[in-house]
Amino acid sequence: MPVYEFECKKCKQIFEVVMTMAEATITKVFCPICTCEDVQQQFSPFAAVTARKS
Ligand SMILES: [Zn+2]
After folding, report:
1. What is the Å distance from ligand 1's center to 54 Cα?
2. Distance in angstroms (rounded) separating the CA atoms of residues 11 and 54
3. Are strands 3-8 and 39-42 parallel, antiparallel or unpaired?
């Protein structure tokens, strides 16, 4: 499964989430440290480039 890397905008922590691409489109990712949902996906060579405007 692809590994998605996210950065929390609040606590600036980088964390990884392993999930399928199908899950990635429906799953609300939140920071495991502060549990906020204000996270930004980091671009990694493994992840497909998806422009999400929502
Ligand atoms: Zn956080």
Report:
1. 20
2. 22
3. antiparallel
Distance between Cα 34 and ligand 1 center (Å): 4
For residue 20, report the distance from its CA to the centre of ligand 1, in Å: 22
Position 49 confidence tier, pLDDT thresholds 50, 70, 90: low
Kindly give the distance from the C-alpha atom of residue 26 to the centroid of ligand 1, in angstroms, as a whole number.
20
DSSP helix/strand/coil, 10:
coil
Average pLDDT score, the chain: 86
Q: For residue 15, how many other CB atoms are within 10 A of its CB?
A: 17
Which conformational region is residue 35 in: left (phi greater than 0), alpha (psi within -120 to 50 degrees), or beta?
A: left
> Whole-model pTM?
0.71
